[in-house]
Specification:
Elements: E1 2-11, E2 14-20, E3 25-29, H1 36-47, E4 49-50, E5 75-83, H2 87-90, E6 97-101, E7 106-118, H3 122-127, E8 137-142, H4 154-158, E9 161-164, H5 170-173, H6 181-188, H7 190-193, H8 202-210, H9 222-234, H10 237-254, H11 272-281, H12 297-306, H13 315-330, E10 339-343, H14 351-365, H15 388-393, E11 417-421, H16 425-430, E12 436-440, E13 443-446, H17 456-465, E14 478-482, H18 485-497, E15 507-511, H19 517-521, E16 536-540, E17 544-545, H20 549-553, E18 562-563, H21 569-576, E19 584-588, H22 594-614, H23 617-620, H24 624-648, H25 652-664, H26 668-682, H27 686-693, H28 698-708, H29 721-724
Parallel strand pairs: 3-11, 3-12, 4-9, 9-10, 10-11, 14-15, 14-16, 16-19, 17-18
Antiparallel strand pairs: 1-2, 1-5, 5-7, 6-7, 7-8, 12-13
Helix pairs in contact: 6-11, 6-13, 9-11, 18-26, 22-24, 22-25, 22-26
């Protein structure tokens, strides 16, 4: 049984939302305030969640507030649809199930649950005075239309999910104390919950032990071992003497007449259920130190058997321990739906531990990925070796024999459904692409197969090459996809000089390295042609050489690079923009490549000097004043070389090709980095930036406008204006 669909209406920032969930791993990604926590809280409100935190409808923040309204909506609804219901699951929800389809061909049963909440409007609040002004009425019903029986009591308890809140205090959750989360988990794990009661006479056991009976053995159940521990504490000489003194020296002298007052000092426990709860609440879960060297292994094991060393561990490891503990119960409890709601699992984890965590979660949520995640099927645990304390008290009875033995665990762990939110590109890059749900603009965009324009080959390709630096596109308000390092390094500087702050607009630049640009573009395209979550600008070269380039670059006659006369311009452009549609748009260079187009647009001098200086990049990276001196010398040499180029090559097209040749002879990335620095220094004033705007190739400025959603055209000033100043 799993949560298959979630529908929200007027809940927080969502006026209306419908998302489909997979049986395994579902990951909500998106920028802050996109609604990730709202979705998880909506599920908590319907199914409830184990732990100390209870979700309740809040009149101030849970009702959707439209921009044109003076107060929030008066009604909200949350509908959950559960599918994959087995016969065992159905037995707990008989009166609430819905059989879709027709009477002649009914489908498998599903469970619809709808929570509806009403808040008083301003007019109603005045009538009923202030006492109930913010009182919210809530009802939870089953049925496809939300008009079925009320859903409460034992049935709702069967749906209870496990919730791990963001920035959780894992250390506190795993410590001992009343109603501790650890005690709740242990009470329901199979190894403890499945224990049969056993006949045990604690007095007879102690007497037999004192008489040297060789056949005496320790009780097997946790409950009876606790009873033995209580007896040993109560009969301790110090406790016995205190009790005797209290009775004989105080209470005896306070009694009236023939009354006899006496007391008993014992461990507070009550009934067996209370005794077990109190025992478990004394336990805490700790991380042991790392494995000791081989030489110290024997002594360390002996010390650990008595009492583990209490070493302080960081928040990250405590967090992992807490999640492992929760999953221990979640996969075993057949009576409850194995649903884990987790916010920010990456909290306090460095990237390598984040990757280990995802492998672990995949092994518990996606059975088909168990082997890929490197998780082997666990063998039954061997019988524990007796500890020193066991040997001192009595023998350990063989496991699985005699009264009180725990029933063997013949049940394998069930796959767990996980709904989690994350801000980590590291996690997003490691996850199956189809498990992601991108939230933006009050909508949810599933990346599951069939929901995007990606085909099966695209999913395989992206799963191999979508790394953490590229995965930041899932958290952006706008995306610019480029094919090389030069564009990735230059575009932020160009945007800044044009008065566009990419960070302020939430734009991510994704460098795909010349491979699969159109595959990445289709990630955020929808199969139903609905607009995607954000604008995507794909920046690519035209890759058509000027006629003179073959001779200047000494290209062989059989070269695959084409010139203008060799191509059908219209057909060529169609292949370049084949990924266009919805909010994805491709921007093809005006002429040939980035460097050539920059030179043609008016930045010929800067590109040439940057290319020449990139050849001496190692010198320019020197320390202190030597770096400045080297820069000055090389810049002067490059200036002279550029003047010679101007004098010897009057044709601007041929000159731009020769500028490109200088850049291509070295490192394009180094040239781009140097060019960015030069542009920042050269065009520092407002007037100079107006001139610079006229030198930016049109396709670059158009791509920036599209990705940032700025529709106004860039200011255009002729390049000659700089010379006139």
């Amino acid at each position: 049984m799993h949560l298959a669909e979630l529908h929200l209406e007027n809940f927080r920032l969502f006026a209306r939302l419908a998302i489909t969930l997979r049986p395994g791993l579902n990951v909500l990604v998106g920028e802050n305030d996109a609604g990730k926590s709202a979705i998880i809280d909506a599920v908590r409100l319907v199914v409830g969640a184990a732990g100390h935190d209870t979700a309740r409808i809040d009149a101030d923040r849970d009702f959707h507030w439209r921009n044109d309204q003076l107060e929030p909506e008066a009604r909200l609804s949350i509908t959950c649809k559960f599918a994959g219901i087995s016969e065992a699951d159905a037995s707990g929800f008989i009166e609430h199930l819905t059989y879709e389809g027709t009477p002649e061909a009914p489908q498998a049963p599903v469970l619809y649950l709808t929570l509806v909440a009403h808040r008083p409007t301003r007019a109603v609040s005045v009538k009923v005075k202030h006492a109930s002004r913010w009182r919210v009425s809530v009802e939870l019903r089953s049925g496809k239309d939300g008009q079925g029986p009320w859903f409460e009591g034992p049935a709702r308890a069967l749906l209870e999910a496990t919730y791990l809140k963001p920035l959780r205090d894992a250390e506190r959750e795993l410590s001992s104390g009343r109603n501790s989360r650890l005690s709740q988990i242990l009470r329901h794990t199979l190894a403890i919950a499945a224990e049969d009661d056993e006949a045990f006479d604690v007095d007879a056991f102690v007497n037999a032990l004192g008489s040297g009976d060789s056949n005496v053995s320790l009780p097997q159940t946790l409950l009876r071992r606790g009873e033995l521990a209580d007896h040993l504490i109560e009969t301790h000489s110090g406790v016995s003497k205190a009790r005797a003194r209290l009775n004989e020296d105080f209470l005896h002298h306070l009694a009236l007449g023939s009354d006899r007052m006496s007391s008993h000092i014992g461990v507070a426990c009550g009934a067996d259920e209370m005794r077990l709860r109190l025992l478990l609440e004394k336990l805490e879960l700790l991380l042991l130190p790392s494995a000791p060297p081989a030489a110290d292994a024997e002594s360390s094991c002996a010390a650990t058997a008595r009492r583990p060393r209490l070493l302080p561990r960081g928040l990250g490891y405590q967090n992992l321990l807490f999640m492992a503990c929760e999953l221990l119960l979640l996969g075993q409890d057949e009576e409850k739906m194995p649903l884990l709601l987790i916010e920010e699992p990456e909290a306090h984890l460095h990237p390598q531990l984040q990757l280990r965590l995802i492998d672990f979660l995949l092994s518990r949520t996606e059975p088909g990925l168990r082997s890929a995640a490197g998780v082997r099927k666990e063998e039954p645990a061997a019988d524990p070796e007796p500890t020193d304390s066991d040997r001192n008290i009595g023998k350990v009875a063989p496991s699985g024999t005699g009264n009180g033995a725990a029933r063997p665990d013949t049940r394998s762990e069930r796959p767990v459904q996980v709904l989690m939110s994350t801000h980590s590109p590291v996690l997003a890059s490691k996850l199956p692409l189809g498990s992601l749900i991108v939230l933006a603009g009050g909508q949810g965009f599933s990346l599951a197969e069939g929901r995007t324009r990606l085909d099966a080959g695209d999913y395989r390709f992206l799963q191999r090459f979508l790394d953490a630096t590229k995965a930041n596109l899932f958290f952006a308000r706008g995306v610019i996809i480029v094919e090389g390092s030069a564009e990735a390094l230059l575009l932020p500087t160009i945007a800044s000089l044009l008065g566009i702050d990419l960070a302020k607009h939430g734009v991510s630049i994704v460098n795909v390295g010349g491979t699969g640009l159109h595959r990445y573009a289709r990630i955020l395209m929808r199969s139903d042609d609905a607009p995607g979550p954000c604008p995507v600008a794909c920046v690519t070269d035209r890759d058509v050489l000027p006629d003179c380039a073959r001779d200047i670059l000494n290209l062989k006659p059989g070269s695959r690079q084409k010139t203008e006369p060799q191509i059908d311009a219209e057909a060529w452009m169609k292949t370049k923009v084949k990924a266009d549609g919805q909010r994805v748009k491709t921007f093809v260079s005006d002429h040939w490549t980035l460097e050539y187009d920059l030179a043609r647009a008016g930045l010929e001098r800067e590109v040439f000097i940057a290319g020449r200086m990139a050849a001496h990049d190692n010198e320019l990276d020197g320390p202190g004043d030597m770096a400045g001196a080297a820069w000055t010398v090389r810049e002067a040499e490059a200036e002279q070389a550029y003047k010679r180029l101007q004098e010897g090559c009057p044709d601007p097209i041929e000159r731009a090709v020769r500028v490109y040749k200088v850049v291509a002879a070295g490192s394009k990335a180094a040239a781009a980095q140097i060019l960015a620095r030069m542009l920042e220094e050269r065009y520092g004033t407002a007037a100079e930036r107006l001139v610079f705007a006229g030198k930016v190739p049109r396709y670059l400025s158009a791509a920036l406008r599209h990705a940032t959603g700025t529709d106004q055209p860039m200011p255009v000033v002729r390049a000659e204006a700089l010379a006139d100043e």
